[in-house]
Protein: ADP-ribosylglycohydrolase
Amino acid sequence: MSSTTLSFVNENDFILQFTDDTSMALCLGSSLIARRGFVPYDQLVRYKWWYKNGYMSSTGKCFDIGMATCDSLLEFQRRQKNFAEKYKISLEQLDFLSDFDLLKKFNVYCSNSGIAGNGALMRLAPVPLFFYRQPIAAVEFSGYSGQITHGDQKVYDACRYYGALIVATLHGESKDHLLSEKFYQTHKAWFGNQRLHKDIQMISEGSFKRSGGLMDGIRGKGYIVNALEAALWAFWSDENSFEKGALSAVNLGDDADTTAAIYGQLAGAYYTYKNLPQKWLDHVYARNFIQCLSKWITYEGSKWYSEHVSSATKKETK
Structure:
């Protein structure tokens, strides 16, 4: 591997256009807003729109897609076609399916078992952002959000664990607490007392704390275990600087944009918008739109929480 260190240029005509990682996160966020909750079927529809029509793309086209995601979306389209024929619904109408009973009949888990790519983790942030006021729901839905396109247990648990970290951040927990080897134990109730896969458990216990980084075996690869470990290493070693952490993630090489996207979800929540490098913010493509969508996610999430807490309270008092 080359020893060249990457950095971001700062030119007036340079626009930081986002890749598939952010496009899929925007699809997920827009689904949470439009459906006012977690509807995996609608998430898949929006991923399909991105794949076929460039929905939520920074270029108007899907110019990059992981193999596992592509396979799952092709399987989703095949299932849609069969479903449309069975229930006499046009394919155009099927994309806007809202009938609760029919939605329950559609199998949204479109991945083969054993698929453990990082594509499930790179888009995660909208889920914990929407549901963070109810940590158990946030962690559970984080896991499900990954499994609809990546079927391995490690994906489910990596997304649950990372979702829990983002939730804890939004609740104001310190960096030391987030990166503690006891994080899972102290938040076990959030996970429904379900154990993590051993590979994810090792990461939660601090396997990413390697001062040598790349020289110590940290790799920003497409395998979700490597990707999670790499992102947490970047967060652990960033010296409380988002810029340093993002550049460290990118400089691991391999699937650089995804490692940085995963890092950015947790680090962005922790450092907050006001502490992001202004020289980067000035060049982010569709920055105002992304800010608006983020605020809308939290707004709809607060409404969801109020409605569900109110509903649960009424049931308890009957």
Notes: Residues 20-313 form a domain with the ADP-ribosylglycohydrolase fold fold (CATH 1.10.4080.10). Residues 81 and 205 are 44 Å apart (CA to CA). DSSP finds 16 helices and no strands in the chain.
